[in-house]
Specification:
Blueprint: E1 17-33, H1 36-48, H2 53-77, E2 81-93, E3 96-110
Antiparallel strand pairs: 1-3, 2-3
Length: 112
């Protein structure tokens, strides 16, 4: 599965497209916790230094799920693009993190 969508951007316009309608802010929220097994594996990796791939994978999966939820939210409103895409994360409790992906849902057409 692709990690992006052709009509999403962190910018506030899409080159080659004209925004016809804005639907407002859309978001995808996922709340994840680390497992005991994951924490143990990460501690072992941290002894050797470098990238802690177990946490990297967990973070990437959470971001991807939040992104897909945001796109679904935009699609439900009738949007075909999302501009101004951003991510945010908040630790809710020890080992429990909320990942939020948000942007502005818009309907665009090819400029021409």
């Amino acid at each position: 599965m692709s990690n992006t969508h052709a009509l999403t951007t962190t910018g506030f316009d899409l080159p080659g497209y004209r925004i016809l309608k804005s639907f407002g802010v859309v978001r995808g929220i996922i709340v994840r916790s680390r497992s005991i097994v994951g924490n143990f594996g990460a501690r072992i990796q941290s002894i050797f230094g470098g990238n802690i791939s177990i946490y990297t994978t967990l973070c990437e999966q959470a971001r991807q799920e939040a992104f897909q939820l945001m796109l679904a939210h935009a699609g439900e409103l009738g949007a075909n693009a999302v501009i101004g895409v951003r991510y945010d994360a908040t630790e809710i409790d020890a080992g429990i993190t909320e990942v939020l992906c948000y942007g502005t849902a818009v309907f665009v057409e090819t400029a021409g």
